[in-house]
Amino acid sequence: MRENPNLIKDNLKKKFQEDKVKLVDEVLKLDGEWRKLKYKEDVLRSERNKISKKINELMKAKKLAKKERREAKEIPGKIEKLQ
Question: Does the predicted model carry a pTM greater than 0.90?
């Protein structure tokens, strides 16, 4: 559907279901929005993983990592807002 929406629209017209043609555009729009949100979520998860790794390294070096822990605690809330 993403690659060739016009093919779907043409097929709907051939089947005399022209009222459904606008649904194709709506689905494509919603799909685009979903893909953007999914990308943002993936970026946040990647950031969380990097911070977790950094915290682990700091803990091994016997350091506190307060700032990193605070940042790591904020990320799940940001992900939740996206969903």
Answer: no
Q: Read off the pLDDT of residues 9-37 as tens digits, 9 standing for 90 and up.
A: 888 888 888 888 888 889 999 999 999 99
Helices and strands (H and E) in the chain: how many: 3, 0
Backbone Cα Rg of the chain: 22
Three-state DSSP state, 65: coil
Kindly provide the b/e burial profile for residues 2-37, where b requires at least 16 CB atoms within 10 angstroms of the residue's own CB.
Answer: eeeeeebbeebeeeeeeeeeeebeeeeeeeeeeeee
Structure tokens at 6: 């016009």
- The pair of structure tokens assigned to 53 is 């790794």
Length of the chain: 83
Task: Quote the DSSP letter at residue 3.
Answer: S
Q: Which domains does the chain have, with CATH numbers?
A: 5-82 (1.10.287.40)
